[in-house]
Design brief:
It is a single chain. The chain is mainly α and 180 residues long. The protein has one domain. It is built from eight helices and no strands. Helix 2 packs antiparallel against helix 8 and helix 7 runs antiparallel to helix 8. The chain is globular, with a radius of gyration of 20 Å. About 4% of the residues have low confidence.
């Protein structure tokens, strides 16, 4: 199948544009690629968050305290309990699944079940976490909130906005029905 045929079938997003494309078709190709990059960036940021959780397990109690997991988790880690590590690795796995959904939505991974629903839910999770930035900012002057907690919330908000933007822009192509 020629590249132009694949483009019109909507399945060649990862291919380079054909030199014989009309300017209008090339513009549409470039536009779709830009939209996919937004969701792919969200996926890579989710990979980074997952990797950070693995690093937290490696560094142990100090990292649990620094990243706000709570004193109880830090004490359990110091005592040699596997519970904090297991919980943190499970959270890392969830973020890895978030990344897979972003990559699937961007056309860089095979289509996953409930892709649209998953991307909307992931967007909501990141946005809810990110919107905690507002009350944290209100408490910041009193010293009740550390600057790093503001950074964590801001990061979540940015990732959530990337997921939402990529999902909205690619919504028609995320349909479970393939167009031919």
């Amino acid at each position: 199948m020629r590249l132009l045929d694949r483009l019109s079938a909507g399945e060649a997003r990862t291919y380079l544009p054909d030199l014989t494309m009309t300017p209008r078709r090339r513009e549409r190709f470039d536009s779709d690629l830009a939209k996919e990059r937004i969701l792919a960036l969200a996926g890579w940021l989710s990979v980074a968050v997952a990797a950070l959780h693995v690093v937290i397990v490696v560094f142990g109690a100090r990292a649990y305290r620094y990243f706000g997991a709570g004193e109880d988790m830090a004490r359990q880690a110091e005592a040699g309990s596997l519970v904090p590590a297991a919980m943190t690795l499970a959270i890392a796995a969830v973020f890895a699944v978030f990344a897979l959904y972003a990559f699937a939505g961007a056309g860089r991974f095979r289509r996953l079940p409930l892709l649209r629903t998953g991307l909307v839910a992931i967007s909501a999770i990141y946005l809810v976490r990110g919107l905690s930035l507002l009350p944290e900012l209100a408490k910041y002057d009193s010293g009740a909130v550390l600057p790093r907690h503001l950074a964590f919330s801001f990061t979540s908000l940015v990732i959530g906005l990337l997921y939402v933007t990529g999902t909205v822009l690619l919504w028609p192509s995320l349909s479970s029905r393939r167009r031919v």
